[in-house]
């Protein structure tokens, strides 16, 4: 009987010791990367803004990528925003985003009136633009050795399946 109580006491001690261990507080095992796409056209009617509802945890990092070939029908090439496009004649168009806990707003700003873009320019920079929002847990990205500007490196690091 004494041996049984000794084993039980050791088991309880081991349980308490492991439950009080705080070395892994940085690991967030209940969250995972999330990805969603947004497609739309920027124009004066929508104030050159696209909105996407999405639940964003306070511990998430928000990354937004633009398909550089959205309006041209070319192959997919993802580029991290914010990004400035130099259109020519001193014109600059910026892609940027804002977010809160429930929404991501992707918008353009320019040092010129965006309504003056030619049809071809509007197709390249404003019409049918496709964006990919990627949420990664901050705890997993905190010490990550990954180039966040490289879309494919982010997918590999966070083990996210790509979409066509």
Number of strands: 8
- Rounded mean pLDDT is 82
Overall spatial form = globular
The portion of residues forming beta strands comes to 25-35%
Number of helical segments? 4
> Which runs of at least 5 residues are low in confidence (pLDDT < 50)?
3-30
Main sheet makeup: 4 strands, antiparallel
Briefly characterize the structure:
Helix content is 23%, strand content 34%. It has 164 residues and is of the alpha+beta class.
Question: Explain this structure to me?
Answer:
The chain has helices at 2-19, 119-125, 138-141, 151-158, and strands at residues 34-40, 49-53, 60-67, 78-81, 83-88, 91-99, 103-110, 129-137. Strand 6 (91-99) and strand 7 form a beta hairpin. The protein is globular and about 45 Å long. It has 164 residues and is of the alpha+beta class. It has a single domain (31-158), classed as Immunoglobulin-like. Mean pLDDT is 82; it is low at 3-30. A 4-stranded antiparallel β-sheet has the order 1-8-3-4. A 4-stranded antiparallel β-sheet has the order 2-7-6-5, with no helix packed on it. The longest helix is centred in the N-terminal third of the chain and has 18 residues, at 2-19. The protein has 4 helices and 8 strands.
């Amino acid at each position: 009987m004494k041996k049984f109580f000794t084993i039980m006491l050791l088991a309880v001690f081991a349980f308490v010791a492991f439950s009080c261990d705080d070395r892994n507080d940085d690991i967030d095992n209940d969250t995972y990367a999330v990805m969603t796409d947004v497609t739309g056209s920027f124009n004066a009617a929508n104030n050159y803004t696209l909105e996407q509802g999405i639940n964003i945890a306070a511990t998430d990092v928000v990354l937004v990528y633009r398909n550089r070939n959205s309006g041209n029908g070319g192959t997919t090439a993802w580029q991290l925003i914010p990004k400035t496009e130099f259109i020519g004649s001193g014109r600059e168009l910026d892609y940027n985003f804002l977010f809160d806990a429930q929404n991501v707003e992707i918008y353009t700003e320019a040092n010129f009136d965006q309504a003056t873009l030619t049809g071809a320019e509007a197709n390249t920079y404003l019409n049918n633009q496709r964006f990919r929002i990627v949420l990664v847990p901050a705890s997993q990205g905190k010490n990550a050795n990954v180039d966040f500007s490289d879309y494919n490196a982010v997918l590999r690091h966070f083990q996210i399946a790509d979409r066509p």
